[in-house]
Design a protein that fits this description.
- The chain is mainly β.
- The strands form two sheets. A nine-stranded antiparallel sheet has the order 14-13-12-11-10-9-17-16-15. Strands 1-2-3-4-5-6-7-8 form an eight-stranded antiparallel beta barrel.
- Strand 2 and strand 3 form a beta hairpin.
Length: 215
């Protein structure tokens, strides 16, 4: 209740109630994570936000109507935020570093952002299938949607099941490698390799999965 009341008070406060050290581009593990502008607008994980703050708490309001509040502390170029008992440390980027850190300047980034990427698997024995669609967005954020379909037989005939899931996080191409995170977790090497099929179209391979360009 106290957290909700504090968030409501902050979001209703005058726009001038800002802490100047918060303004800027903040990175996590070297990748752009959030941008807070002096006019009260910004983005977090490539999602547009409105923000307000006092000397201790930061309130964010998203386009879908959701809002969240967190305690924060700025020391030098480090921003520590605390939410739901968990803390995270971001690093403030200079303007030059922020521009250089944007994805899309190398060949692999351009390929990843050229279209969505889809995978499809089918089990001939069980009849189960799984399809996934991944989108790599500018700003180092990715999102995915997947659907699994299963079939089982019993005394009362065949039963079909279906499950949907969504995912997302951050991504960064470095030296021909693809680094990805789940949510706000650490970036990890996906072991990505890029090949071409018989028609010359690119195929992304990571682990046992293969992804091809799709709509």
């Amino acid at each position: 209740m106290l957290r909700s009341l504090l968030a409501a008070c902050l979001l209703a406060a005058p726009v001038a109630a800002k802490d100047p050290p918060l303004v800027g581009v903040w990175t996590l593990d070297g990748a752009p994570y959030a941008e807070l502008r002096a006019n009260g607008t910004g983005s977090v994980r490539d999602e547009p936000v409105q923000w307000k703050a006092d000397s201790k708490a930061l309130a964010l309001s998203y386009a879908n109507g959701a809002s969240e509040i967190m305690l924060y502390k700025v020391v030098g170029n480090k921003l520590t935020i605390v939410m739901n008992g968990q803390s995270q440390v971001l690093t403030k980027a200079s303007v030059k570093k922020a521009v250089k850190g944007k994805v899309g300047k190398d060949q692999l980034s351009a390929l990843l952002m050229s279209s969505p990427w889809c995978s499809f698997t089918y089990n001939q024995i069980s009849g189960a299938s799984h399809q996934e669609r991944v989108v790599f967005r500018p700003g180092g954020v990715w999102g995915s949607g997947s659907r699994g379909e299963s079939y089982s037989s019993g005394a009362y005939g065949s039963v079909a099941g279906q499950s949907d899931a969504e995912g997302g996080g951050r991504w960064q191409a470095s030296g021909g490698r693809l680094l990805m995170s789940q949510g706000g977790g650490a970036l990890e090497d996906t072991g990505l390799s890029v090949t071409r099929n018989s028609n010359g179209y690119p195929i992304l391979k990571t682990g046992k999965k293969e992804y091809s360009q799709c709509r």
